[in-house]
Amino acid sequence: MKVLSCIRRKFGAIFLFLSVFVLVLVLRNMDVLEFLPKVNFTIIASRVSSHPDMSRSFCTFYPLSPQDALEERLILDSTAWPETPLLPAVISLEQTSDPAHSSFTILPGRRGGQWHVGDQLEVMIQTSDFQGRPKKSGGDFLLARLHNRKLEAGVAGQVVDLLNGSYSAVFSLLWEGDAQVEVTLVHPSEAISVLDRLTREQPDRIYFKSLFRSGSLSETTVCNVCLRPTQPLCNHTDLRTGEPWFCYKPKNLSCDARINHVKGGYLQNLKAKEEKFFQSGVNMKVSIRASGPSNVLVLPKERGQLKGNSSTAASGPSGYYYQGLWRALSGTTVRQFNTSAITECLKGKAVHLYGDSTVRQWFEFLNAALPGLKQFDLHSPNQGGPFLALDYANNILVTFRCHGPPLRFGNIPARELRYIANELDDLVGGPNTVIVFGIWAHFSTFPMEIYIRRLQSIRRAVVRLLDRAPGTLVVIRTGNPKALTLYETITNSDWYSLQRDEALRAVFKGLNVHLIDAWEMSLAHHLPHNLHPQPPIIKNMINHILSYICPQKAG
Predict the structure, then answer these.
(1) Phi-psi region of 165 (alpha: psi -120 to 50; beta: other; left: phi over 0)
(2) For 337-526, CATH number?
(3) Percent of the chain with pLDDT over 70
(4) How many angstroms separate the CA atoms of 401 and 416, rounded?
(5) Could you tell me which CATH number the domain at 96-193+276-310 has?
(6) How far is CA 258 from the centre of its chain?
(7) What whole-number distance in Å separates Cα of residue 212 and Cα of residue 253?
(8) What is the pLDDT of residues 276-333, one digit of tens each?
């Protein structure tokens, strides 16, 4: 027994030593012990992909329930992009898709060259490289629309990648008269490969800063959700939602001394000659020509023709423009609201807007359009708010607050950084409460998992809100295509936006919420793509929101 006791003491000491050693080693690598929130909260590191270029173990994700983890996996799989075949170390521009050598052809259709309202128009697209050789693989990013400028009519097309260098675009024929096909190469597949690699290897290429101050001492450090642990970190993870956020710890100040949040900048770490894949007017957002006619004449709907068509199918468009007005194909009939009608619709309502600058546009529109709505001076930053406007006579309240980080705005006080889920949890809700939010553009450079988890967090709050106040109206804005420069592409490409648009639709599918399809409303319109859609599109969006608040009465 004495020998056994001696062995236990010996191995116990060794075990204690090893435990302390491992703990010290972990803390030295994490450097966050004194900065952890004082709650029982678990943070796990991101999964390390088997992809050889993966280098984002410094991104931090909070753990998911089995159900949310499965949903995340399904969304990641559904948004996966066709891989470009194995490329040499340096690929020449001549081998990539060239819109000038590519073309599309309108197929005859089932009526032998005649089309009627309610039919589908199908177009085949063949991509070729700069030497005119047909491409043999897919992965290009194409957009398509059908339009008639004179009628101010337009509808987005549904593009399908056939994975062999050919693509199909299908359009719903929704108006009589001329219909012009337009196909645009947004990015060749080789450019998509670069964008994908940048997110995998450099998810911190957009970085942020915070000022820490106490008395006369001040210091600014870098902050991010993906922050390389090269020095001690302050953990500013939100205690309610679990959304991770970190700053490098100031040398002489406490983590509690954080004053603000600002956009820091971005790192353009492209490899040699990769910029050639992102040339405006050459291979980025460039139209593809037609091989033969580019337009068709749409005849009136035939007598006895079945009503069912692609416009009502799940894969069909959500709406279209006619005479400059957006007509939704499901959900609600879009009404037209003048100033007095907007005031009458919003009378007695509290409208809370949350999100980025594309949602802030709606606050600005209402504030300018309604003479009785007066904005209070809260001495808020012009970009981030918060903003509050009140029409006292008609009991109308309209507010705007930006979503929590990552946020590429200017100087925002740290105390004004709020997460949408927390804001929703603090609302009473009810039939006179309207919630509108949009969250997409500021997440482009980060792994999709970070965006999906933010949406899941917001969804849980939406479900709680609708459970306690089922009369609350919830409206969600999708992302939209935009003008692309090299900077915009590296940080906010339409390809990034498309993936996040699909994720948002998947997460909120089946809930009692309404979508404003900014993607199709921008794509189908004749105006140029813009991060902040121009006033005619905004007006149509506002009419769509108001039509949900004040739907057309039956009869």
Answers:
(1) left
(2) 3.40.50
(3) 87
(4) 9
(5) 2.60.40.10
(6) 28
(7) 7
(8) 999 999 999 999 999 999 999 999 998 766 554 444 344 789 999 999 999 999 989 9
